[in-house]
Specification:
With 446 residues, the protein is mostly beta strands. The chain has 1 helix and 33 strands. It binds fe (ii) ion. The site of fe (ii) ion has 8 residues, from strand 20.
Length: 446
Amino acid sequence: MSQLDTTAESEPFWEKGNLAPVHEEVTAFDLPVEGAIPPELNGLYARNGANPREGHSGHWFLGDGMLHGVSLKDGRAEWYRNRWVRTPRFNGAPRKPGMPDIRSGVANTNVMAHAGKIMALVESALPVVMNRELETIGSYDYDGKLDTPFTAHPKICPTTGELHFFGYGFQPPFLTYHAADANGTLLRSVPVPTRAPTMVHDFAMTSQHVIFMDLPVVFDMPAAQRGTMPFAWSDSYGARLGILKRGAGIESLRWVEIEPCYVFHVANAFEESDGTIVIDVAWYNELWRGGPSSKTFDKAVLRRWRIAPGAARAQEQTLDDRSIEFPRVNDDRAGMRHDIVYTVDAGDENLATSSYSSLRKYDLKTGQSTQHTFDKGMASEFVHVPGAGGKGEDDGWLIGFVYDRARGASDLMILDAQRMGAKPVARIMLPARVPQGFHGNWMPGV
Ligand SMILES: [Fe+2]
């Protein structure tokens, strides 16, 4: 079992406490469970995160990727594994000067399945295909058709099974939108030129459109030369949303102004009957003024953009002023109207400093929110898994890792999404610590 690193002041926040990396790959079978795992949950929950092999990295977002996975079968926790994503960089390939190499970088941000492939994702490189035992197969370029990086936040359309995604980089057009069909064949790539290279972590999808965020966190050469995240806040760049019709060419692109801000994560987006586009996001007032140092995260709040047909500017509304991150919805509603958003509650803190002791569920129809608190536990992102035969948006389970400080190891927790105040229906005790990490997904039947 890995021990927590020390908390010397000189260490960056991502090398302290439960953000610190683990140093061993662990395999364990038939894990102990408190409560009862819903027998309908058959599949793999996997989650990615930065876990630098050497124990150190120049920025939280730059460490080697490590997957943590738990296989559930017939009410049992069949196994837990954690494995590094063995990219060429992990295996010692030198970093080449100049532009990032999309075939060699770390893959540390998300993991998802589409068209029979489990893919570890980072926004600066191609997807890396993994097997269900979390061993690395290799980078994937869609049979030679994909020549840009691949976002860590692709969207699967629940109606068509299509995968919508984009890549961004430092050369014009800076951003390219891609779509693959349900079988994983790349259908189209559409350049979406922005005015400068900006950091584009996520995007939004509705049933009719995809929406890109061109925000004022702009390529910064001094940061690039320091080997850290090469972006910084700009007071002059402005902020826009680029709305593109799904399946159409660049001629359908329309830009809409918003207040300068930064958004890592979109909860979901949908269209109302009159064509108004609604987007819910975890919203930062600003990010990385002066560069991506460890002390420049503000808190994020749940905010809504509404874009009326033909409008030049979005209407904006902060839905709650509490600090949250990692917003998720029922993925069966992706691109369609949602009323429920599940988040990790950061208390009054921010991404770097929070103890993440609770989850918060927003019901946007009633304006109410409910909380689940983990006593002495530290929660990572939780995903919603629709219940078998469930018809309501909220029917189903919330699944995620919680670090148990008392045990010095982590649990996979399963909550009933409709009973936030109740104790977890199952607590699966892992033999190791799972660092806070970034994003994961439930992969049914995998
Ligand atoms: Fe993310």
